[in-house]
Structures are given as structure tokens and as C-alpha cells.
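Give me C-alpha cells for this 118-residue protein.
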Amino acid sequence: MHEIILKNMTSKDRRFNEMLMSETLCRRDVYEIFERRIILKILDILEFQDDGKTQAFLRKELAVHHLPESYLTHTVDTKTGQEDQVYKVIGYQYVVEGVQLFVVRISCYLRKTIKHLS
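Here you go.
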């Protein structure tokens, strides 16, 4: 068995977008589930002005959110025969279009589940 699920969800105000891809494989008595999820959220939209506030804001933001956060977990349940590996990265991106500055938070989530049926 091989199953693929694709989802793309966007909010009405277009400030939030979530994309999901899930793939399920079954070989013999082993289920493997791969899940990839990307979440984009526009946190703030600023207008460029010549008073230096935009540059001060960017310096402050880059000092706080300079490096992305990353999380990694690996769980093995010997009673149920299930193994989970989860990797999550959260970062920020700053996009300039015309006179507007968009502050975007990006979350990438990868999960692999292996389940032994016996």
C-alpha cells in the first residue's frame, strides 16, 4: 500500500498558509508514515519611512531572531512497536516589497513514524 495526502490551506486574510504532505507506506508488517508540514505566518507589515524607525526595528528583530530554533526528538515505544522521529525548525524572514516590510515566521515540521505490526 502507498498513499499520499497533499493539503494547502490559506486563511481568508492571506496572512497564514499551511502546506502538508503525508506519505504512508506499508511493506510486509511495517507501516512507515512521513509527514512534512510548512507553516508561513505574516506577523507584521510595516511601511518604510525615512525617519530611521524601520532600520532600528530590523536591528532589534535580527538581534532577537538571528538564529533559527530547532528541535529534534526520537521516541521508541517497545510495547507498541512504534518509533517516532520529529524535527522542527522555526525561523523568521523579512521580505521587502515596494515600501512595505513583511515579518514572516516559518515553521518546518518533519515527522517519520515506523510502526511494526506483530
